[in-house]
Design brief:
By secondary structure, the protein is of the alpha+beta class. Helices cover about 20% and strands about 10% of the residues. It has three helices and two strands. The longest helix is centred in the C-terminal third of the chain and has 8 residues. About 0% of the residues are buried.
Length: about 80
């Protein structure tokens, strides 16, 4: 019989992550930029803001910051 894999993890307060890890910051070869579906040109941050909040756009476009603080509202 296969071992049962837990579907939930219970973390103590000090085990809960405080940062998101930005994989792009450690990549030797960066992925190709997001392309605008209409022009097929690399997208600019302001073109993503109608769809995503500004903070999410900044994180998506960031290729240098390894650890991004998780906002307090999300942590709660």
């Amino acid at each position: 019989m296969a071992a049962k894999i837990p579907t939930r993890l219970h973390l103590s307060e000090d085990e809960v992550p405080k940062y998101w890890y930005n994989l792009r910051a450690d990549m030797a070869e960066k992925p190709e930029p997001l392309l605008h579906p209409g022009t097929l040109q690399p997208m600019k941050a302001e073109e993503l803001e109608p769809v995503f909040c500004k903070a999410a756009v900044e994180q998506e476009m960031d290729e240098t910051t390894k650890l991004i603080p998780i906002p307090d509202g999300i942590q709660e």
